[in-house]
Structure formats: structure tokens, C-alpha cells
């Protein structure tokens, strides 16, 4: 191997030689051979995945996502740490499962299920564009995502779509909410409908005739064993990044009649099984003959006077 700083000579047909006669000289003394080593940037802990586990190995350079039993991954499961940027090369996959309710294709659209039944993909027919998610994933017996609509008359509101997000968004009770007052802010800013206990939410699109465009509405139905307290109140509406309704949907147990006007009991209502309950009263009251009304206990004190006559 040629030493650094040594003069080399090139002779046609012979290559580099040490003989200086009649040859062209190359001097390598000015070349820098030291390799510059870039600074390595370690990756931060990767994001967790729902219904799965995150595994980092190989001295913190390799990443693997695994789904729990009965779940399967949707997306890339193996990645690495890019030391030049300090970022992982993959995003977390989604751990999906089968067993979700059957889906109906949107009007003017088609829905396709994969072989597992855990991923639904939607496509709109020619001449229509999609509002909502193209793909829904089955998770814990519910479809996760925004059910799409294939629309032809609605057009995206560019001003709303590009507006800055407010620092506070979510759900709020006590404000005025209705279809006529609804807007598209929750859709364009990806604000999901709130979770209501024992309820399943399904997003759909209804025409706001005042805005002359479709807006997203959240419709709730109760899980098995529960029913709506008021069947007339099933929806929440979005207004300025906030979901709400004048009266929110509420799911109560089917056999818990005490949830409705306290079962008609004056004081206490105790469930006794399916479609059965019993009323009881506070101390100092007795249950009336109708088994619901509580009446004050009347205490009658009888004083017996015994007169002893001493003879």
C-alpha cells in the first residue's frame, strides 16, 4: 500500500510506478484522508400502539410492534432509528380485530372488507367525492373512524379548512346546538365525537340547508342491555370545534326502571332484577299501600293511669 505523502508516477501501460523518468507526476500530499464522522442523534421512545406492545431492541436502534392475540396489524410493524434525524422510520400500525357490525355502503359508493373482516375500505363512484375516512378499522367491536359520505353538491370550505385551530376543543353542554347551527369545523380539524358511556357512536352527514352543504352529525345508539333514556335525543352536533346538544343522549340499563323518575318512588328506588324494583322510605316514614308513597309515621302514645287506693 502506498504511503501517504509519497509521490507517485503514472506511466501509460504500466500504471503507477516509482520510476520518475518520462512520466507525469501526481502528488497526494495535499489530500485529506481523514473521514469526518457525523454526530449521531438518538431516537426518543416510540409511540405506543393500542391493543399491542412496542418493542425496542438492538441497542435502541430497532423497533417492532406486536398486536395482542385476536388482533392483527394494519401497517408496517418493523422499523429502525434514523440516527441522522433522530426519528423512527415507521409510524405505529393499527391493531384491528374482526367481529364488528356489518357495514352498509354509502349512497353512490362501495365498501370492501378484507378477508379478516376487520378493515373496511370505501370508494365513491365517478362524479362524487368523499367526506370522511376512506378506511375504518374494527376495534373492540366498534368501527373506528368517520363513516364516509359520497357527495356531489357539497364543496369543501377552504376558509374553514385552513383556519387556525383553537387551543380548546372538545365537547360542551349547555350551549345551543342544532343541525341548523352546525358547521364543518369538527370534520376539518379532526375533532372526534365524545364518548358516551354504554353507547356506540356513528357519524353521518346531513344537509344543513342554511349553509347549503353537508355537515357531520354524531348519532348514538345503546349497547346491548341498555336503552336510551329519551329516544328523541340521539344526536350531537358540532359548532365551532365543540360537540354538544341541548339534551345529550344517555344510555341506561334496560332493567333499571329506577333511572326513570326514580321509579315513581317518593324516597328510595332499588332495582330487583329485570323490569323489577322496590321502593323504600327514610327513617320515620312508612310505605303506603301503593308501595311508592312514603307517609310520616304517627306515633300514638297511650298513657295508662293506675290509681291505687289505699285503704
TrEMBL record:
It is found in: Virion. Residues 41-97, 98-152 form the Sushi domain. PROSITE patterns: SUSHI. This is Fibrillin-1. It holds the Pfam family FXa_inhibition. Transmembrane segments: none annotated. InterPro entries: ComplSys_Reg/VirEntry_Med, Sushi/SCR/CCP_sf, Sushi_SCR_CCP_dom. Keywords: Disulfide bond, Signal, Sushi. It comes from Elysia marginata.
Amino acid at each position: 500500500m502506498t504511503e501517504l505523502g509519497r509521490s507517485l508516477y503514472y506511466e501509460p501501460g504500466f500504471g503507477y510506478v516509482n520510476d520518475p523518468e518520462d512520466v507525469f507526476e501526481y502528488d497526494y500530499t495535499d489530500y485529506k484522508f481523514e473521514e469526518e464522522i457525523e454526530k449521531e442523534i438518538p431516537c426518543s421512545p416510540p409511540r405506543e400502539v393500542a391493543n399491542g406492545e412496542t418493542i425496542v431492541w438492538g441497542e435502541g436502534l430497532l423497533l417492532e410492534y406486536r398486536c395482542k392475540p385476536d388482533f392483527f396489524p394494519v401497517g408496517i410493524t418493523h422499523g429502525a432509528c434514523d440516527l441522522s434525524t433522530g426519528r423512527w422510520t415507521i409510524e405505529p400500525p393499527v391493531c384491528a380485530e374482526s367481529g364488528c357490525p356489518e357495514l352498509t355502503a354509502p349512497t353512490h359508493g362501495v365498501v370492501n372488507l378484507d378477508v379478516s373482516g376487520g378493515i373496511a375500505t370505501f370508494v365513491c363512484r365517478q362524479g362524487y367525492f368523499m367526506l370522511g375516512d376512506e378506511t375504518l378499522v374494527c376495534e373492540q367491536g366498534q368501527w373506528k373512524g368517520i363513516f364516509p359520505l359520497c357527495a356531489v353538491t357539497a364543496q369543501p370550505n377552504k376558509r374553514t379548512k385552513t383556519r387556525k385551530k383553537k387551543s380548546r376543543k372538545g365537547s360542551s353542554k349547555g350551549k345551543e346546538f342544532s343541525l341548523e347551527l352546525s358547521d364543518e369545523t369538527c370534520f376539518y380539524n379532526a375533532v372526534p365525537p365524545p364518548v358516551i358511556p354504554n353507547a356506540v357512536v356513528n357519524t353521518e352527514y346531513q344537509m344543513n340547508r342554511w349553509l347549503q352543504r353537508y355537515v357531520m352529525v354524531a348519532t348514538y345508539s345503546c349497547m346491548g342491555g341498555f336503552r336510551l333514556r329519551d329516544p328523541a335525543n340521539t344526536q350531537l352536533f358540532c359548532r365551532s370545534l365543540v360537540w354538544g346538544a341541548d339534551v345529550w343522549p344517555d344510555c341506561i340499563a334496560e332493567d333499571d326502571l329506577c333511572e326513570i323518575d326514580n321509579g315513581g318512588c317518593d324516597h328510595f328506588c332499588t332495582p330487583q332484577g329485570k323490569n323489577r324494583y322496590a321502593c323504600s322510605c327514610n327513617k320515620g316514614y312508612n310505605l303506603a299501600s301503593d308501595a311508592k308513597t312514603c307517609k310520616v309515621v304517627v306515633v300514638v302514645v297511650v298513657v295508662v293511669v293506675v290509681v291505687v287506693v289505699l285503704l
